[in-house]
Amino acid sequence: MPRLIYDYTKSELQRVSRNPDRFQRKLKKAVSNLLPDEMELLQKWLVFYTDNRPELRRCIAEFRVE
């Protein structure tokens, strides 16, 4: 079940990636919903996904795995 939440989170972030403000809001929501190991996976995915999207880089600057 938790893997479904991670996959859903990724799809939601992809869906709203055209709007950096919405992307950042969804990212904050994801941080509160995911498990720590899923957060690590999400952080790696975000680095990959935002590699060619500089407008989203500022959104992940405050994203940290604790």
Strands, helices and their partners?
Elements lengths: L1 H14 L4 H14 L2 H14 L4 H7 L6
Helix pairs in contact: 1-2, 2-4
Radius of gyration: 11 Å
Taken as a percent bin, the fraction of beta residues is under 5%
Tally of strands: 0
Instruction: Calculate the terminal CA-CA distance, rounded to whole Å.
Output: 22 Å
Largest sheet: none
- Strand-pairing-aware structural class: mainly alpha
Shape: globular
Unreliable segments of 5+ consecutive residues: none
Averaging pLDDT over every residue, what do you get? Answer: 87
Order of helices and strands: HHHH
Q: What report would you give on this structure?
A:
There is one protein chain. The chain is mainly alpha-helical. 74% of the residues lie in helices and 0% in strands. It is built from 4 helices and no strands. α1 packs antiparallel against α2 (20-33) and α2 (20-33) runs parallel beside α4 (54-60). The mean pLDDT is 87.
